[in-house]
Amino acid sequence: MRIMYRHIFPSLLPITLLYVAFGIAYSVLSEASISFLGFGDPGQVSWGGMLHDAYITGSLSLAWWPVLPAGACITFFVLSTFMIARQYERGVDPRLG
User: Fold this and answer.
1) Residue 97 clears pLDDT 60, i.e. is over it
2) pLDDT at residue 96 in the model
3) Are the C-beta atoms of residues 53 and 66 closer than 8 Å to each other?
4) Alpha carbon 93 to chain centroid, angstroms
5) Confidence at residue 26, expressed as pLDDT on a 0 to 100 scale
6) Which pairs count as long-range contacts for 32-37, CB under 8 Å and 24+ apart, including other chains?
7) What's the pLDDT tens digit per position in 24-72?
């Protein structure tokens, strides 16, 4: 047990945090893309559903304001999740400094 806590877990934790960040980003992007394609729950509000509604009404080619908030929220959420996980990784792994 001492070997596991001293040597294996400190090396394993940064990789685990990175996989968690990629999992969160993948799940958000896959849900948004499924909702954008129209296969999501129509009663559930989602960023992909907002983009789908803008596409159906033809706002993508005429106006940017229905598209920009949902697209920016998806982008900023995925980037912030990755950046937070990266900072946790730097704080947990003493070799990164």
Assistant:
1) no
2) 64
3) yes
4) 23
5) 96
6) 32/74
7) 999 999 999 999 999 988 889 999 999 999 999 988 788 888 889 999 9
Q: Which amino acid is at 20?
A: V
Using CB atoms within 10 Å of the CB of residue 13, give its burial: 0 to 12 exposed, 13 to 18 middle, 19+ buried: middle
For the chain, what is the HEC assignment? CHHHHHHHHHHHHHHHHHHHHHHHHHHHHHHHHHHHCCCCCCCCCCHHHHHHHHHHCCHHHHCCCCCHHHHHHHHHHHHHHHHHHHHHHHHHCCCCC
Do the beta carbons of residue 33 and residue 48 sit within 8 Å?
Answer: yes
Round to whole Å and give the CA distance between 44 and 22: 24
Q: What pTM value is reported for the model?
A: 0.81
